Inverse folding.
C-alpha cells in the first residue's frame, strides 16, 4: 500500500472533524444554557425556567456580594454551610440594629471558605460590623478547599485560577449523564426518577437576590401539610441515628485550622466586628469535642461561643429538622434570641 | 518526506518522550538515562568482545545493575519489612528500616526492556545500536514507556533505525485502536473501579454475591485498564509508523492457564519465558524440574507486579494452574476430541466459563490490599453467599452489566470473527454508529469525571 499523501491526510482530518461535530455541538450547548450558572453573573440566580440545577451556593453568595456590595453597603454577615440556611437576615436584623445584612453561605462550608470570604470583604473595602458564624464539627474539620462541584468556592474566595474552576463545571456537564438528564427535562418537561439526583426539579428553592436569604418554603409547607408523612420519609431521616445521648464528636481542630481561626479573629479585630459563633444543634445529638470547644473559646473568648450541640431540647425533637442534616428556621430564630438576649 | 527526515524524527521522538516522562518527575529522567547509558555501553562492549568470559561478565554487570536499581526503588521496603516481620516472629525486635522512596513510573517496564536488549546482544540475536540517541529513543519511546508493552530490541529498534512509512491504513487503524483503548479505560475500567473499590475496601460489609460480582467487575476492569493502555500505545505507534507488539489477545476466552498466558500481557509472559523460564531449563528436564521452573518463573512474575505478598501468592496460584494444566493435559492426551459440533462448542463454552472463574479467584489475591483483606473477601464468598435471600447485590449488578455490555459484545464478536480488528472491518454505517455509541458513552458516562491513573502505572 502506498505512503500517505497530503490529500489522504486532508481526507482523514476531514472525517475526524465530521465525526467530532456532534461533540462540538453538545459543547456549545453548555455555553448557551450555562446550567450551573457559573459562566456569568446573574441578577437573580433562581428566577429562571426549569430545569433547576442545584447551584453552587458559594458561587451565588460571592457573585451577589460582588454585584451589590457597593449599592447596598453590606456590613453584617451570616457565615456558614447549608446548615446556616435556617438563619434569615430579617430575623437577625432586630438584634443588630441599623445594618445591611448579607447571608454568605456555601455548601459544605469550611474555615478555609469563611476566611476566604472575610478576606474578600476586606479586599473590597467592606465593613463587617456584625458577624454570625454558624459552625459544626464538619465545618471545622475541613482544612482545605472542598473540590466537589457543589462545594468548590468562587475563585475570588479560594484563589483558584478561573479556568480551573470553570473546568470543574464544564466537566460536570458531561458527568454521569448529567447532560442527558438536563436536556430530557428541558425538552420534554417530564420529571423522571433518574433525574432527581442531579437535575433537582422537585425541591425547588430560591434565595433573595439582595440579602441572599435562602427560602425553604416548600419544605415548610410540606411539613405543615402532613407532618406524619414528612417525618416518616426514611430518605430524609434514615441516614443518621437520632437516638439521643449521641456522645461526643472526635476532636477535629488541628494546627492548620487553629491558624485559620486566629486569622478570622484578626480580621474581626481589624474590622471591629461584633461577632457571635453558634455551634449548631445537630440531629445526631453529639456534643462538640471538649478540646475543640476549649480551643474555640481560647481564640474567640468564651462569651462569643454559643454551644447548642449535644442532646438538648432542640436536638431531641425531630420536628426541629427538615432533614437529618438541617434544622428549621424556627430553631434558628430560637437560637438567635437566646444568643443575643444573653448579652 | 517522512524518510528523508527520519533521523530528525528520532531526535524529536526522544525529546518528546523525555518531556513526557519528566512531566511526572524530572529527577527520575536522570535515573532513566543512567540505566540507558550503562546498558548502551555494556551492549557495545559485549558486541566488541570475543572472550566468552568477558562477555558473560559484562552481561552480568548489566543485569545486576538493572536489577539493583529495580530492587532498591521497588522492593527495598518490601524486603526490609518482611525481614523485620520474620525476625519479630522469632521474638527479635528490630527497628523499621523503611525508606520513603517514590517508585519511578514505568521502572519495571523499561528495566525489563533494557535487560532483554543486552541479553539479545549477548546472544547475538541483535546488533547493538550504534547511536546512543537511537538507543535512548528505543527505551524511552513514550507510548510504551510507562506501562508497556515491553518491546524487544529486535522488534522495535530496527523500526527506529530505518525510515518509517506511514500509510493511509495506519492512520485509520491507529485511530481505531486509540479510540477503542480510550473507551476501555474511560468508560469501562474507570466506571467499574467505582463499583469494585468500596467492596474490596470493606468486604465485611458485603455479602458473597456482591463480592462475586465485584470480582467479575474487577476482572473486566483490570483487563480494560491495561489492554486499553496497550491499545492506545499501539494506536499512537501506528499513526507514527511504528508497529508495537500485541499485548492482549482476548484472554478471557482461554480454556486453560497455558493459553491464558499466551493471550494475557503477552509482552511480559514471552519475556519471562525467553529470559527466565528457558534459561532455567524450561521444560527440557524431568517433570519435577519443569514444575520448579514454572514455580520460580511465576513467583517472580507475580513479584514483578508489586512488592506485596498478595502478588507473590497470585504468582504461586498461577504456577499451580499451569502445573495442573500440564498434568491434566498429559492425562487427557489420549482422549479423542468431541465429534458432535454442538457438544464440542458447549464443552468449549463450559471450559471458558470454568477457567474464567479460576482466573477470577486469582484476581481476588491480586486486588486484595493485604492477606487479611484477601481472607475477608474469601470469607464473604464462601460463608455469606446467599443469592436468593440477599438483595444487596442488585445495586452493583445492573451497573456492572451496563458498563460491561458494549465491551463484552465487542469481544465476543472479535472472538467469533477471529479478528481483533473485526469492528474496523464492519460496513461503514454500522461502524460509525458503533463509534458514536462509544463516543457518547465516554462523554456522558465516563472519563471526564476526573483523572484516574492506569493500574499498571504502579508496577
Amino acid at each position: 500500500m502506498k505512503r500517505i499523501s497530503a490529500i489522504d491526510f486532508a481526507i482523514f482530518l476531514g472525517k475526524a472533524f465530521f465525526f467530532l461535530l456532534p461533540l462540538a455541538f453538545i459543547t456549545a450547548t453548555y455555553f448557551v444554557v450555562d446550567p450551573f450558572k457559573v459562566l456569568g453573573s446573574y441578577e437573580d440566580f433562581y428566577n429562571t425556567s426549569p430545569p433547576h440545577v442545584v447551584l453552587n451556593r458559594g458561587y451565588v453568595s460571592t457573585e451577589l456580594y460582588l454585584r451589590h456590595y457597593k449599592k447596598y453597603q453590606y456590613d453584617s454577615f451570616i457565615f456558614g454551610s447549608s446548615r446556616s440556611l435556617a438563619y434569615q437576615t430579617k430575623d437577625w436584623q432586630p438584634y443588630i440594629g441599623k445594618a445591611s445584612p448579607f447571608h454568605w453561605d456555601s455548601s459544605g462550608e469550611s474555615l478555609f471558605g469563611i476566611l476566604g470570604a472575610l478576606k474578600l470583604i476586606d479586599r473590597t473595602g467592606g465593613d463587617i460590623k456584625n458577624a454570625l458564624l454558624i459552625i459544626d464539627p464538619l465545618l471545622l474539620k475541613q482544612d482545605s478547599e472542598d473540590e466537589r462541584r457543589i462545594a468548590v468556592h468562587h475563585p475570588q474566595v479560594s484563589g483558584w485560577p478561573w479556568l480551573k474552576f470553570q473546568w470543574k463545571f464544564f466537566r460536570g456537564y458531561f458527568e454521569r449523564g448529567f447532560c442527558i438528564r438536563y436536556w430530557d427535562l428541558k425538552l420534554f418537561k417530564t420529571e423522571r426518577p433518574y433525574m432527581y439526583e442531579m437535575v433537582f426539579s422537585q425541591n425547588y428553592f430560591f434565595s433573595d437576590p439582595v440579602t441572599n436569604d435562602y427560602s425553604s418554603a416548600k419544605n415548610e409547607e410540606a411539613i405543615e401539610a402532613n407532618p406524619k408523612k414528612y417525618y416518616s420519609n426514611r430518605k430524609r431521616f434514615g441516614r443518621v441515628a437520632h437516638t439521643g445521648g449521641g456522645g461526643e464528636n472526635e476532636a477535629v481542630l488541628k494546627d492548620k485550622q487553629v491558624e485559620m481561626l486566629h486569622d478570622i479573629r484578626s480580621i474581626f479585630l481589624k474590622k471591629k466586628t461584633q461577632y457571635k459563633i453558634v455551634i449548631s444543634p445537630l440531629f445526631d445529638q453529639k456534643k462538640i469535642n471538649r478540646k475543640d470547644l476549649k480551643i474555640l473559646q481560647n481564640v474567640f473568648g468564651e462569651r462569643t461561643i454559643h454551644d447548642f450541640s449535644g442532646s438538648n431540647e432542640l436536638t431531641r425533637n425531630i420536628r426541629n429538622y427538615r432533614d437529618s442534616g438541617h434544622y428549621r428556621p424556627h430553631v434558628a430564630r430560637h437560637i438567635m434570641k437566646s444568643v443575643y438576649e444573653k448579652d | 518526506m517522512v524518510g528523508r527526515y527520519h533521523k530528525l524524527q528520532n531526535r524529536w521522538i526522544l525529546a518528546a518522550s523525555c518531556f513526557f516522562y519528566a512531566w511526572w518527575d524530572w529527577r527520575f529522567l536522570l535515573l532513566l538515562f543512567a540505566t540507558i547509558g550503562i546498558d548502551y555501553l555494556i551492549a557495545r562492549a559485549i558486541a566488541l568482545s570475543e572472550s566468552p568470559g568477558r562477555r558473560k561478565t559484562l552481561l552480568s554487570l548489566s543485569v545486576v545493575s538493572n536489577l539493583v536499581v529495580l530492587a532498591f526503588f521497588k522492593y527495598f521496603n518490601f524486603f526490609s519489612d518482611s525481614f523485620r516481620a520474620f525476625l519479630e516472629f522469632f521474638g527479635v525486635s528490630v527497628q523499621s528500616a523503611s525508606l520513603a522512596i517514590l517508585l519511578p513510573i514505568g521502572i519495571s517496564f523499561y528495566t525489563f526492556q533494557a535487560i532483554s536488549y543486552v541479553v539479545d546482544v549477548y546472544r547475538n540475536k541483535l546488533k547493538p545500536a550504534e547511536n546512543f540517541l537511537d538507543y535512548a529513543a528505543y527505551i524511552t519511546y513514550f507510548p510504551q514507556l510507562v506501562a508497556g508493552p515491553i518491546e524487544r530490541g529486535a522488534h522495535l529498534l530496527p523500526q527506529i533505525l530505518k525510515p518509517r512509512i506511514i500509510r493511509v491504513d495506519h492512520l485509520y487503524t491507529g485511530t481505531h485502536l486509540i479510540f477503542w483503548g480510550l473507551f476501555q479505560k474511560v468508560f469501562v475500567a474507570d466506571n467499574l473501579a467505582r463499583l469494585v473499590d468500596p467492596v474490596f475496601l470493606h468486604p465485611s460489609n458485603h455479602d458473597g454475591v456482591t463480592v462475586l460480582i465485584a470480582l467479575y467487575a474487577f476482572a473486566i476492569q483490570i483487563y480494560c485498564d491495561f489492554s486499553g493502555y496497550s491499545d492506545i500505545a499501539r494506536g499512537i505507534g501506528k499513526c507514527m509508523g511504528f508497529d508495537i507488539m500485541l499485548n492482549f489477545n482476548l484472554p478471557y476466552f482461554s480454556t486453560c492457564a497455558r493459553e491464558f498466558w499466551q493471550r494475557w500481557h503477552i509482552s511480559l509472559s514471552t519475556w519471562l519465558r525467553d529470559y527466565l523460564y528457558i534459561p532455567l531449563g524450561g521444560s527440557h528436564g524431568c517433570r519435577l524440574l519443569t514444575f520448579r521452573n514454572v514455580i520460580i518463573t511465576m513467583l517472580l512474575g507475580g513479584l514483578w507486579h508489586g512488592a506485596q505478598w498478595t502478588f507473590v501468592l497470585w504468582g504461586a496460584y498461577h504456577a499451580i494452574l499451569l502445573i495442573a494444566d500440564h498434568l491434566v493435559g498429559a492425562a487427557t492426551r489420549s482422549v479423542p476430541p468431541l465429534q458432535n459440533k454442538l457438544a464440542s462448542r458447549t464443552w468449549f463454552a463450559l471450559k471458558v466459563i470454568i477457567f474464567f472463574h479460576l482466573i477470577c479467584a486469582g484476581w481476588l489475591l491480586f486486588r486484595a490490599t493485604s492477606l487479611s483483606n484477601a481472607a475477608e473477601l474469601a470469607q464473604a464468598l464462601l460463608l455469606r453467599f446467599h443469592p436468593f435471600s440477599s438483595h444487596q447485590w442488585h445495586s452493583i449488578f445492573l451497573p456492572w452489566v451496563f458498563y460491561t455490555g458494549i465491551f463484552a459484545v465487542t469481544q465476543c464478536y472479535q472472538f467469533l470473527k477471529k479478528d481483533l480488528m473485526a469492528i474496523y472491518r464492519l460496513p461503514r454505517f454500522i461502524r460509525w454508529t458503533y463509534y458514536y455509541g462509544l463516543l457518547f458513552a465516554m462523554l456522558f458516562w465516563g472519563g471526564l469525571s476526573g483523572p484516574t491513573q492506569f493500574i499498571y502505572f504502579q508496577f
About this structure: Chain B is about 70% helix and 0% strand.
